[in-house]
Amino acid sequence: MRQVTKLSHGWLFKEDFSDKYLTMRKSEDFRGDSFKEVSLPHMTREIPYNYFDEKMYQFISTYAHQLDITEHHRGKRVFVDFEGVMGYAEVFLNGELLHTHKGGYTPFAVELTTYLNFAGENLLVVKADSTERDDIPPFGNVIDYLCYGGIYRDVHLRVVEPTYIDNLFARPKVNLNGPSSLETTVFVNNAAPQSVNAQVKLKLSYQGETVATKETTATIDAAQETKVEVAIHELKNIKLWDIDVPNLYQLEATLKINGEVQDIYHTRIGFREAIFKPEGFFLNGRKLHIRGLNRHQSYPYVGYAMPERVQKRDADILKYELRLNLVRTSHYPQSIHFLDRCDEIGLLVFEEIPGWQHIGGAEWKEVSYNDVRAMITRDWNHPSIILWGVRINESPDDHDFFLETNRIARELDPTRQTGGVRCHRLSEFLEDVFTVNDFSHSGGEIILDTQKSWTGLDHQVPYMVTEFNGHMFPTKRFDQEERLMEHALRHVRVQDKAAKTDEIHGSIGWCAFDYNTHFEFGAGDRICYHGVMDMFRIPKFAAYVYSSQVSPKEDPVLEPVTLWARGERSIGGVLPLVILTNCDHVDIRLAGQDFGRFYPAREKFPGLEYPPIVIDHIPETGEWGSTWFDGEFIGYHEGKEVVRKRFIKNPVAAELTIKADDTQIYADGQDATRVVFQAVDQVGNPLPYLADFIKIELTGPGEIIGPSEVALIGGCVATWVKSTREPGTITIRANSTRLTSETIRIESTRHV
User: Which one from 132, 394, 559, 632 is the annotated catalytic residue?
Assistant: First the structure.
């Protein structure tokens, strides 16, 4: 039956390609030709944090792997499944070209069966072209993000019977007032030269308990794929998937021929109804205003090449730290691990095809059509995904092209609507939801423009703002205080305006995290500082605009937008003072004396459930004077103190803190976790202008991703610690010229 093995280790890599590599038949031949051993996911070359030439990773490289093929595999079908190779790949087995693939963001499978050598070695070679080729989206013109090179996602060896299940599309049908149902299409592939009669059985389970089963008999056509339709009706007491309670069901399809099991295929599904209507977005019959951010899947040093745990951590940050209900996967299909986590935690997803402003020629468009197919057939069972993005981001109109991308999407998945992100007015509306990047707000009175001004239509349609702010007001985490405050307020204003405007069903800010970019964009150092968090996922003040939108019973938030310095602002002092909070009110003490009670600006920002407090003056004192003093902010909910924030008048570097996201990782040679270092003052506040050089010391079975000697950036920095294949205790600490952190321990254990 089906056997799937992850091919993470034993890859040999070299930063070039030659036809002579195709004549080699043993892995030892590669070891003797300047190849180095690497593990996946892998980037062709590590990059600095900033100020680098993006051409440094844009070259053609070679990956080689010796496959473990035995007589056990004879009579089976053997595939290698690639989740992502940037950006063009040629796959060879024992010198034979088996497959080519265009596109760095979509998966592809390569069948090895007829080329396997059962009497000797089997050498898999991948030619990875990581240059920006004009015939592959998103390339062909400048793009505002980097597409890092290499085999940056997982690869698996898949062994199945000659007749097997290739895919399964589940279509839960929710009846909010009665029994639900489940329609499925099971895609059965038959390599035999004759048709066969088969039984396909579905088993639906919830938390290990069987909910329902259904079996059908079908004729599987010879030498092709057959669609087998199986439906389960009258499903009672189904637990819905929702953003608050993301109930997931396990669906198992078993294929039998003559009573013998040939294959078992598993997937997870969720029962939910998600639909955009002219009057709003509705999830399970409940109107829900969308509040989200865009996400690039990139990281410092290794670009896209981060493992499962790190990908999932981003989903947790978006859901639990930033309190979003949706993420847009700008501007390409993202890691399956990230999407799996969105399913698990109830984070809605708007997923789109690769592209940025540019539309290429006929060959380019064919690749884009394949991107639509690959994205949907890979991800159609994720309940978190509510919208397919089938337009090239911010591109001009192209009637025939986008008519076809919409047709493909609707034919493959009639259960979800389509969207297409544009940034120009009166764009042709071919999708189901009009999605637009509205950058109207530049600090003045105009916050968001009207739906009619963008669509030109005389009637209301499903409508969502998919980007705002971003390049309009890029902000570094260590910028001057007035800019940090304005950055936060721009997110406040737009989210408030969208939430109180019925015709706008949601707003997705640009963006969650800073990201590396081409030299034509960003701050000149290859970084776009558009995020509410930096590249290390460390928050800027604007992050608290989002994280404060949660009940104080769950997580009280109190974040004054100030560095608490007398001369930080051009006008001196800290007024006007914005406090990002979900508290009912905040009391302020200065130099140990009470200076008043302050309330959220609900009249000014009625669209936000938890608007900020805005203080223009302190009662009875006017300006705070030429002296400086300690400050204290006390937040209350339902009459009780729930959170307190202290500032000290004379901060000095008191401690170098260290914190890991995880205290345990797997000793599999690819798992990793983030470690954050931060210089703080006597009361634990960060020191954003401290730029000490730190040396990170690691002992035990682990390694640091990126450099081990770095400068603090805005008083803090992070790294990722990667496991080896040996279990044990990893210890980490850091030293600067004047501070030493504590030592923390991360246990690296076998993955059972």
Answer: 394
